[in-house]
Design brief:
The structure holds two protein chains of two kinds. Chain A is mostly beta strands. In chain A, 10% of the residues lie in helices and 37% in strands. Chain A has two domains: 16-65, no CATH class; 67-150, OB fold (Dihydrolipoamide Acetyltransferase, E2P) (Beta Barrel). Chain A has two helices and nine strands; from the N terminus they run E-H-E-E-E-E-H-E-E-E-E. Chain A is globular and about 50 Å long. Chain B is α+β, with helices and mostly antiparallel strands. Chain B has one domain: Peroxisomal Thiolase, Chain A, domain 1 (3-Layer(aba) Sandwich), CATH 3.40.47. Chain B contains 13 helices and 13 strands. In chain B, helix 6 (166-180) crosses helix 10 (295-304). The longest helix of chain B is centred in the first third of the chain and has 16 residues, at 29-44. Chain B is globular. Classes of the chains: A mainly beta, B alpha+beta. The structure holds zinc ion. Zinc ion binds next to loops of chain A. Zinc ion binds at residues 38, 40-41, 43, 52, 54-55, 57 of chain A.
């Protein structure tokens, strides 16, 4: 961990909401995971779309779901492609990315970092829970959703 | 499948510029495109002025009107761009060009790709900006931004599901480097790779070592397509298009890694259509060129085209099996994107033609059926099969 208590060192492009995903980013600010669900056919979908891919309804609601997930896949990144991560990768060697499936939200997948030792063993199928990472010093402020083993 | 374009169109000529390290081309990207097209016309024995169609992919920056003007073409009849990034469009451009000729839209179509990254910037580089919005806002802040980082998780999941060992990926890389040693055009000519050097090389993104990742290069490549009837009277041994298809599976384009069939190179729906059109089976393929953005993409491509059961990869993916001329499935016989040149995969199509003509530097003896798989893991992807006159 760096001294900012963010998983990745500052300096990566920071997320900016669009009209399509604004409720999601606002939810993260309040420790809530809100993802799209169709009011007509109850299909969950992620990333955000302007219509339901199942029934084509535009009647979609960003719906709260628990941050309980299962590791669907992962990767250990060693080579920096961004200057912001040069020093972190020099010091720590690698960082971990997980693709997490959410069984309580139609098995949609979210992408995040797996907190803890970047060299820890990662098992596909492992249970993880979400951790909100608030970037209070950013301008404008934003939050990310990270994951840790349960 | 009836009334397809099988055997109706042929590749009459191929050409390329010298291949350069990334950023080192002495000419502009547009000039490289022109040089490759003129070289392909010369090879085909036609005047560049007779080219009446252009097909490319991945948002190539050399636009057909400009090319046609620069070459003094008498007329422009087909100006085609396959949507989608990466090298997924290389065989799709062949399909589009062939379809245009078969349909009577144009007579002499060039498929081309030109890259000068010194002039226009790199692929394998993270974004250099302060903010990000849209789909990438859900990946880049977590450190997923380069192609290697975007694709590794597909390969991790596939290797997990089917118990595939790292040595399977290594075999692909070793075969490419092996063939590059016979190819003077190859960037890695004179730079062989052995198991130890592969194993000792640094990780880029696990499971990709340095040698699992494609090069980035400058240069251009082109091929001339005409009707089968015309090709018979032209100087080169005709190389017929037996089949060419493009596309991807259900919701392959779902954003933020939500494609339902995730651990895939995107070829499961294409391969049966390709074999149907070409009227061949995997056992009929004499030689394969399979696009390596990353070796893991080749792994899944070969499985999804039916050469190997997913649970048998550790036995099938051994270097000897991929070496020309003795291996069971000679693979990337020019050195491919790993060791010849990364011309967004079009070099693989040129090599597939050379195999049919008997002109490869690692020739498979009597190759009659030659396959190209383009751009695994992106969407749309594409693949094609070429054949000699004996296959018609
Ligand atoms: Zn719906």
């Amino acid at each position: 961990m760096n001294n900012n208590n963010y998983y990745l060192n500052p300096g990566l492009p920071q997320p900016v909401a669009t009209p399509l995903d604004e409720p999601y980013w606002a939810g993260l600010r309040n420790d809530q995971l809100l993802v799209q669900r169709c009011n007509q056919c109850n299909t969950w979908q992620w990333g955000p779309e302007c219509i339901c891919h199942q029934c084509h309804s535009s009647d979609l609601t960003f719906t709260a779901t628990p941050t309980q997930g299962i590791v669907y896949s992962y990767e250990r990144v060693w080579h920096p492609v961004q200057p912001a991560l040069l020093e972190q990768l020099k010091n720590e060697g690698a960082y971990l990315v997980v693709l997490v499936e959410l069984p309580q939200a139609g098995n949609i997948r979210m992408l995040g970092n797996l907190l803890g030792d970047p060299h820890q063993q990662v098992d596909i199928g492992a249970r993880v829970e979400g951790v909100y990472e608030h970037h209070e010093d950013a301008e404008p402020v934003y939050s990310l959703l990270q994951w840790q083993l349960k | 499948m009836s009334n397809t374009m099988r055997g109706q169109v042929a590749i009459a000529g191929v050409g390329e510029t010298a291949y350069y390290k990334r950023g080192e081309a002495p000419e502009s990207e547009f000039k490289l495109a022109l040089d490759a097209i003129i070289a392909a016309c010369t090879d085909a024995g036609i005047a560049p002025q007779d080219v009446d169609g252009f097909a490319s992919y991945s948002n190539d920056r050399s636009d057909p009107s400009h090319l046609s003007a620069a070459l003094g073409c008498k007329e422009l009849r087909f100006a085609n761009m396959q949507w989608g990034g990466g090298g997924g469009g290389a065989s799709a451009a062949v399909a589009n060009a062939a379809a245009a000729i078969h349909a009577g839209i144009a007579d002499t179509v060039v498929v081309f790709r030109a890259l000068a990254q010194g002039q226009f910037g790199r692929f394998g580089q993270g974004l250099r900006r302060n903010t990000i919005a849209g789909d990438f806002a859900h990946t880049i802040p977590y450190g997923v931004m380069s192609p290697a980082q975007m694709f590794a998780m597909k390969v991790v999941r596939f290797m997990h599901d089917h118990g595939v060992a790292q040595a399977a990926l290594r075999a692909i890389s070793l075969a490419c480097y092996h063939h590059a040693q016979a190819n003077p055009r190859a960037i890695m000519y004179g730079r062989p790779l052995d198991e130890q050097s592969y194993d000792d090389s640094r990780w880029i993104v696990k499971p990709f070592h340095l040698y699992d990742c494609c090069l980035e290069n400058d240069g251009a490549a082109a091929m001339i397509l005409v009707s089968a009837q015309r090709a018979k009277d032209m100087p080169n041994k005709p190389c017929y298009v037996l089949g060419a298809v493009a596309g991807s599976q259900y919701r392959a384009g779902a954003s933020v890694h939500n494609t339902p069939d995730y651990a895939s190179s995107s070829f499961k729906t294409l391969a049966p259509r390709l074999y149907d059109m070409a009227r061949v089976q995997p056992k009929d393929i004499d030689v394969l060129q399979s696009y390596e953005n990353f070796t893991g993409g080749v792994l899944m491509s070969i499985v999804e085209h039916g050469f190997c059961e997913p649970d048998a990869c550790n036995e099938f993916f051994v270097k000897e099996n991929f070496i020309s001329p003795t291996g069971g499935l000679p693979l990337n016989t020019s050195g491919g994107n790993l060791a010849e040149c990364y011309m967004h995969g079009l070099g693989l199509n040129l090599e597939a033609v050379r195999q049919i003509r008997g002109e490869s530097t690692s020739q498979v003896k009597g190759a009659d059926v030659s396959m190209v798989i383009s751009g695994p893991m992106v969407t749309p992807v594409s693949s094609c099969i070429f054949g000699s006159e004996a296959t018609l």
